[in-house]
Amino acid sequence: MEEEFFLLLAVVATATGLLVVVAKNPIHSALALVACFVQVAALFILLGSPFLAVIQIFVYVGAVMVLFLFVIMMLDVQKEAKTRFLTPGAVPSLIVLLLLAGEMLFLLLQSDRLQTFRAASPPDQTQTPADISELSLLLFQDYLLPFEVASVILLVALVGAVVLAQADPEDNTHTSGEEAK
Amino acid sequence: MESVIAILPLLIKMAVIVAVLLLLPMPLTWLERKIAGHIQQRPGPMRVGWHGVLQPVADAIKLLTKEDHIPAEADRLLFKIAPIVALVPPFVVFVAIPFGEPVQMFGTEVTLSLSNMNVGLLFILAVSGIGVFGIILAGWASNSKYAVLGSLRSIAQMISYEIPMGFSVIGVVMLAGSMNLFDIVARQDGLWNIVYQPIGFFVFFVAGLAEAQRIPFDLPEAEGDLGAGYHTEYSGIRFSFFMLAEYLVVVVLAILNVILFFGGWQGTPPLVNPILWFFLKVGFFIWVFMWFRFTFPRYRYDQLMTIGWKVLLPLSLVNILVSGFFMF
Fold first, then answer.
1. Across residues B170-186, what is the average pLDDT?
2. Which one of A146, B177, B181, B290 has the largest count of C-beta atoms within 10 Å of its C-beta?
3. Contacts 24+ apart (CB under 8 A), B232-235
4. Which residue among A31, A50, A63 sits closest to B119, beta carbon to beta carbon?
């Protein structure tokens, strides 16, 4: 039963992932990405990690993609929607891309790690899914420093975004006629 | 065959929940119009049936027989699936919602929830966050200015109020030491959480009003300045899907308020079934939501953002800090 579910989710995830790239309309691409993220969240549930699945939905689907769509809706997508996915000039890069993909596949199949991975027994499914308290202990005891550093970096990025978005008080080009009075 | 019998109770529970949820908006629309009428000193619907009780049926027939109109410039596929996308998350939320202690039925113990998740509360918050996609799709696919403006407003509003909403329940999670909704209710055996978390409740309630996009926060469909907002171009059955979704969000919020802050099925007075007691409380909150709708004026957009970011967010953060100090 689990294998069938995995196949279903994996096929849909790959198909929607492909759709993200080939869809002409940016909104369609973004929605395909949403569908792809939901499939990945379902895969996390299959792997016995509901917390990660919920976070995936919370952060990626509920926040990141909503902001993506917000930005796309503000843009004029009509012009973008008319450009084709494969322009004639893109043929050389496509060939290089295919070559690289072939190389990657070759290396992957030749790798002896794949054999050891295949031989390894599947992870123990009977163990209870990781508790939130275990996760918090990991974050706030074992990995406290990286966790705090990551949050400081995010804060810096946030402050940077605010500074960049703020209009320069010296710059008068943005003020309209009414405000200038 | 055995596997079918094993999941049979689950299937029956799912069927019951879906049937109830599909029918629930009918009495709720009647109730809303009646409450509106009495608050405004008029009787409300009176013609169809006794005191207008059959009015929702007449409305449903009207909506089902109306032309399902699709604008010529619309993105047809997205326009068609948007109402369905809007309707799915309020149903999915009910996967994690418990309705009471397990009961004895037909000789077996039946739990009154579809699943008992460790991350139940987080799941509900995450899934209700997806609800905004239906509104985004509807607004964008309609290819109409009013609809796009309505859905842009709605995205900004939902994102802004999701944050204080998520923070306001952290106090409850700290008290219960768990995100499991059964544990959260069990924790309120003595005193309800509202006693310990009055600020948390206030923030959750206000943010909930904004998430459900009800007055005083119904800017995405402010009929005065936007036509009807994101569903301006919708008619007939697809329009009714949006209405259905909106009513279900109100029901979900009422249930969450009861479970998180008002003890769920705890504190039942004698001679009352705990499950009935739970639904009475939920009904009270649904009534409060409707009462608010006809009591408050709509906020301006900048006021909405100020309340979200400058009042509710700091309040919820202070609430977490203070609860932490009191607990340890």
1. 87
2. B181
3. B232/B142, B232/B144, B232/B146, B232/B147, B232/B150, B233/B69, B233/B71, B233/B74, B233/B79, B233/B142, B233/B144, B233/B147, B234/B83, B234/B138, B234/B142, B235/B66, B235/B67, B235/B68, B235/B69
4. A50
